[in-house]
Amino acid sequence: TLLCPSGARPCIPKDFGHGSVVCVCNATYCDSLDPLVLPAPGSYVKYESSKAGKRLERSEGTFQSSLHTPGLLLTLNISTLYQHVKGFGGSLSDAAAMNILRLSRPAQDNLLRSYFSESGIEYNLIRVPMACSDFSVRPYSYDDIPHDYELKHFRLVDEDLKMKV
What we know:
Keywords: Glycosidase, Hydrolase, Lipid metabolism, Signal, Sphingolipid metabolism. This protein is an alpha+beta fold. Helices cover 16% and strands 19% of the residues. The protein has a domain at 84-164. It has helices at 94-101, 105-116, 158-164; strands spanning 13-15, 21-23, 43-48, 57-62, 66-69, 72-75, 89-91, 125-127.
């Protein structure tokens, strides 16, 4: 039995034989959550999943100026920022595109909604590999002509035109 978090629909489990299950996304069902609400300053919201059955289990907490437990010292200085996060997302590789295109149109819509919509995890970025990657079924590039510095022979391939563009 998978634990259903607050705001999530029940999971349709599928076991692939590795000691855990995944929730099926198909034409009529895909995981979704209630819209996320930012926590108050100084606090956090955590979602946890586990092989033991936790599935997007929501918990809340507050940051303390420092936390010390045996073997762990975590100190947060929120006045010093090292980077700006533009967003979160994934990669649309050849393999990902092939799997998405094998789904029915309603299942594709549900899957993409679960990634990019307010009822999903709200990805706002996506990376598309240039030419082939380790998730392609064959090696290819866009211009294999030596010394073609003006890229006169540059061409997109079928994988790009049919699956990613």
